[in-house]
Amino acid sequence: MSTKTAASRCSLDVEMALRGGCRVKLHAGPGMVKRAGQEDKEVRFILDNDLFMTGNVPINLSAGAMQTFASAGRQPVSGRRYPAAL
Q1: For residue range 45-63, what is the model confidence (pLDDT) as tens digits?
Q2: Contact 74/84 with Cβ under 8 angstroms?
């Protein structure tokens, strides 16, 4: 059996809470990419993440909300610290 046919689909989907009321949805795995409305013929590896806060953030608090995302991504809920950049 070749490596290409050994697994029919292998992907990872994670949704978790971060500090400060932030949440993250992460998807990693194979998928089809559309460019200019046309689907690519080759399967690609896709890494997609969405950072969000529930509810509405008033425009005058949006800069602070972005800073919350920046700090929440470096320090998960477990309290373990990771470097700011790799």
Answers
A1: 889 988 888 888 888 888 8
A2: yes
DSSP-derived letter for residue 10 is -
Please give the structure tokens belonging to residue 57: 């953030």
The position carrying tokens 């990872």 is: 12
Amino acid at 73: G
Do 13 and 26 meet the contact criterion of CB atoms below 8 Å apart? yes
Instruction: Output b/e per residue, 15-42; b: 16+ Cβ within 10 A.
Output: eeebeeebebeeeeeeeeeeeeeeeeee
Going through 10-81 in order, the beta strands assigned E by DSSP cover 12-17, 22-31, 34-35, 38-39, 44-53
| Prediction pTM value | 0.58
CA 7 to chain centre: 23
| pLDDT tens-digit map of 19-36 | 778 888 999 998 888 888
